[in-house]
Amino acid sequence: MKNSLIALSRDALFSLRDLAPIVFVIAVFQVFVVKQPVSGFWTLLVGGLLVVAGLAFFIFGLRIALFPIGENLAHALARKGSAFWLFTFSFVLGFGTTIAEPALLAVAEEAAEVAVGAGVIANDEAAIARYALGLRLVVALSVGVALMLGVFRILTNWSLPVMIIGGYVLVVIVTTVAPPEIVGVAYDSGGVTTSTVTVPLVTALGVGLASSLKGRNPMTDGFGLIAFASLTPILFVLLYGIVRQWT
Amino acid sequence: MDLIHASLVFVWDSASDVLPIAIFLFAFQLFVIRERIPNFRQIVVGFVFVIVGLGLFLVGLEQSLFPLGRLMAQQLTDPAFLESVHGHVRESLVWQDFYWVYLFAAAIGFATTLAEPALMAVSIKANAVSGGTVGVWGLRVAVALGVGFGVALGCFRIITGLPLQYFIAAGYLVVIVQTTMAPKLIVPLAYDSGGVTTSTVTVPLITALGLGLAEAVPGRSPLLDGFGLVAFASLFPIISVLAYGQFAVLRGKK
After folding, report:
1. For residue B107, what is the nearest residue in chain A, using CA coordinates?
2. Given an 8 Å threshold on Cβ–Cβ distance, is A21 in contact with B111?
3. What ipTM was predicted for this assembly?
4. Which residue of A97, B105, B116, B171 has the fewest CB atoms within a 10 Å radius of its CB?
5. pTM here?
């Protein structure tokens, strides 16, 4: 109990240090460049304290829950030796955490507006909702596939640089035939898919898997899952744009 | 009172994000692995901390940093502000006139990345797995430098209107060259750091900056040109982390 308290207050001190740069940047620009008065000083202060406390709680919970359970599952799945369950687990983890991702929701809605502007879909609510939902499903599917690919790579020990760079070469080729209005959305969707809860779990999965397989180094083989999860959404969304153009 | 209400709403939101994942993990453990969950009580307590922590973190951001950051992004890209600084009219602004925007973009990209919880998670793990070779702080600063540079360059692209894919393709060429020269140990981590940088804190702020900029610059459409900053912010950390690895090797040789 006492140890947990010490760990928690240490995390709080660290979050204070982590947030200091943001406060500094905003303060300097506010005072020297924008020079506009700021209202609600107390709200800002309380908000800042909530951010510090929240970050400390999150990191603490990460250490005692997300990391252990993620690694424990990876070890257990590796011991079980069933590729089927390993792939099922990675696909569901990727698909399930992405479909509910708030950042993705926002991007999907903006992308639907772009599509209306480009005349790809009709300007009515049903068509917009369908387009946005389709996009979310495609991105979630792509993250599920990405984690499966990443786990497949750890199992087979294929070269990560070759797979990732090959993937981006494919992206560049597909970009040349994709409708221009989808390109910005597609490239951004690679970045928004990996959320704060998914990343620790996925990292624990990769590292746990690599450390329980013989002849794998957790440092060189355990990482790389998130790289796939940032690559496949770009490709899938570009393809979605191409397909939607025809229909 | 409002704040307490808002906090409850955000904690509820984060619970509805995290609980399905927790239930899935528990179900998998019980029905597929068929083992009891070790340290079950500790795990449950940890999940409560994750949910409450994420909720408070988001409500705090929403109350303090986000409104200020968005306001500043608007003010810095406001045509009236740009005219007052440079004394010429909106139509004759050239890309050099936006130096405050570049500076702000780089600084805010750098600072928000240091506060990104997902990046902390990966750094903690990388530090433990590498036996201390990869420093928690070093990795995070390397990633943050990459994001800062990426966001500033992304703003330059919005202002000049050059095609996004040229920059991205050129960036990946650099990544390919660096991959062949960087130590093998750092490569997978570098590739991962592209994806982890852009989540809770960074995305809302730089998206506001991109949209504001695309609105302020004549001839840009926010819908077509406002996107793409996140892509820059995920590409350049790969380059900067690979460089961090190369630098560490060089320093080791001396």
Report:
1. A25
2. yes
3. 0.84
4. B171
5. 0.86
